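Pasting as-is:
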Amino acid sequence: METKNINHISVSEKRFLDPTILASVLDATNTGIVITDNLLPDNPIIYCNAAFEKMCGYDHDEIIGHNCRFLQNKDRSQEARFEIAEAIRNGENCVVEIRNYTKDGQLFYNQLYLSAVKDLSGNVTHFIGIQNDVTSRKKAEQTLQMNFKETEQKVIDRTKMLKESEEYLSSIVETIRESLLVMDKDYTILSANHHFLNTFKVSLNETKGKLLYDLGNGQWDIPELRLMMEEILPTNNPVLDYEVEHEFPHIGRKLMLLNAHRVELEGQFKDRILLAIEDITEKRAVEQRKDDFLSIASHELKTPLTTVVGYVQMMQRLMPENSSERFRSVVDKTERYVARLNQLLKELMDVSRIQTGNIELHMDYFDFDKMVRETIEGIQAATRGHRIIVKGQPINQCYGDESNLVQVITNLISNAIKYSPDSKEIDIHVSRVSSFIKFSVRDYGLGIKEDDLKKVFERFYRVGEIQKNYPGMGIGLYICDQIIKNHKGTLWVESEPGKGSVFSFTLPVNLDKKAAYEY
């Protein structure tokens, strides 16, 4: 085959090397493609094509800035992961098959071709990952292996299990501490547990053998319920946390959380539908009362606290020059504690505004680098025990609410200092990843257990061990998460107990003004 030197390619041929055309080709292919930047910390993804987004179920904005390991979720002990890590360390190519998980937790098998990109000096600058979904092939192989391993004894055991399944299913239904219905494929009630009968004030004779929508003389003929059972469930099995509100003639209005699952069994018990019903009426009412109290309390405390702040400031200004050191110390401590109380009240009011949907963003262009520098200088001036190290690249202009982003950065750095008492360094890294700004704060402190990682951004959540030794209400990270979401960004954490934590967020570089205000 004849090989052409690129310097001798004609004009008509060179147009096919246009980057725009190349990008279009990558987006048109059915093969998933990602590119990572090996010169940035943690080798983050800087490009992914449409096929990769479809394969993993994540949107483009949720992928950029992450390391590829997020696709393995908790499945971190795979041999393929160590092969990939070894190849990246040595700047080599490799081919592996690895288990990945989609955004909604579905397992898929991925055949990965990893290729290192080097500059003229031989340094690895990027990695290109070619991803092929081989789930169907893997499932076929696994099915074939299972067929070879089947024995006559297994068939006997399975037959026995099916014979006992009705009794087994009935015991499960009665054990569950929420209302549960078992139906056939035509929505006829086969069984209902006692919790359902007690909650909705019906007898077993009035329930068993009845069509779901005919229960209670048509009380359960609810449009939202029909939509879930007849349209959503057949195409999206199972259906989780489907909220329905309905007025029942005898027991009043109920707010219900429904979970439905279609179970396909062989033999006598084929095509069963399980419908779990959780009555969250009182739970939601309690949450609403808590939100109302939070809103009222924070606003009622604002006026007297503002007055106290004013009096303390007046005391500082009018303090006689010959005042004793003890008196000056008392006034200074009062000012500090009032300032802490004022900050706590501000956070409570932020939570109240978020819960009621009244959070306000004052969007404009500002100097992101200057904002970060001034914020860190202020924190460093008040922190003698830790050294804050900033690395990365200049960002320049950013479009967003500067004061809110200052609050986020301040909270993340303050937490890093607070929860790493035995470490003296906090690492900050700022970079541009594709069309996003990425900001990361790394500490070398206590770390967070895996079970707590998914909850740290929840309102009022505090890790048990930390709660004992460090004061706080557990609302700082919740506020940070909501602010970043309102900027159409993402905030996440990676951590191991005893090894510290890395909190990172991404922000769109060119956030559309109209979209930001309508968020």
